[in-house]
Amino acid sequence: MRIIRTIKEMQNTSKFMMRQGKSIGFVPTMGFLHEGHISLVQEARQQNDCVIMSIFVNPLQFGPNEDFDRYPRDLKRDEELAIQSGVDILFYPHVDEMYPKERTTKLSVKERVDTLCGRSRPGHFDGVATVVLKLLQIVLPDRAYFGMKDAQQVAVIQGLIDDFNVPVELVPCPIVREQDGLAKSSRNVYLTPTERKEAIELSSGLNAAAKAIADGEKESITIKTIIKNYLDQTSGVIDYIEVLSYPELQPVNLIENQVIVAVAVQFSAARLIDNTIATSDIAIGV
């Protein structure tokens, strides 16, 4: 595996591969890799000649009460996992490489951000969109892989690609889950043993909601009630239960097209999120 640290070298390398007719799959990450990231690499490996992963902790997406400096980093471990999973090139730029001077333009996301997790993180998706657009211009991939665990981020990035005619295919990948259905997350280790048992109610509630939609239930309020009945069995505090159009992320009263059913629950030391994408005849992500 080759490690690249500069934008110029990364762009030149991608252009060289393009001239050779090789397809490029791109997996952007902030490092501290886990099985969710590895599943994205595996998907990219199947569909492309070359897999490039970036590791960059992006300061622009951290709010004033979110500690950028304390974000977990373990490059040596990440390198080992990247090699084992089949990454060809690891792009690992320094902050000064990505943002060498004061920006003359600012990217502001107007839609799909004032709901779900974005409601409590103003400006977060401006930072996400900025770094993703930069990375796509640097890596020049044919396909970019993002996990549906953060379905709001996928929706925002799809809007970015559409708005700016970025020549890349966004490939959304299914949520990776524990054997009992809990969505895998680095936050799961902060659950107490009791909370860990309770946490499966998130996916159980989403499964029940998806089945109700597939069976013909169209009232959003009914779907929310179904999920709430599951989440009320936990000791966590419900942050939100939402039924929104997807990828537009607009509220819906009647389910007629594709929707996202999403939940967030705050336990004592961990905030868990989960979701499923559903229509009247299919559910994706649970």
Largest sheet: 6 strands, parallel
Based on the coordinates given, report the CATH architecture of the largest domain: 3-Layer(aba) Sandwich
Strand order of the largest sheet: 1-4-3-2-5-6
- Rounded mean pLDDT is 94
Number of helices: 9
Domain tally: 2
CATH level-1 class of the largest domain: Alpha Beta
- Enter the CATH topology name of the largest domain: Rossmann fold
EC number: 6.3.2.1
Binding site for (R)-pantoate: 61, 153
Binding site for beta-alanine: 61
Subunit structure: Homodimer.
Secondary structure blueprint with pairings:
Blueprint: E1 2-4, H1 7-19, E2 24-29, H2 35-47, E3 50-55, H3 75-85, E4 89-91, H4 95-98, H5 124-139, E5 143-147, H6 151-163, E6 169-173, H7 193-198, H8 200-214, H9 220-231, E7 237-245, E8 259-266, E9 271-278, E10 283-284
Parallel strand pairs: 1-4, 2-3, 2-5, 3-4, 5-6
Antiparallel strand pairs: 7-8, 8-9, 9-10
Helix pairs in contact: 5-6, 8-9
GO molecular function: ATP binding; pantoate-beta-alanine ligase activity
Function: Catalyzes the condensation of pantoate with beta-alanine in an ATP-dependent reaction via a pantoyl-adenylate intermediate.
Protein name: Pantothenate synthetase
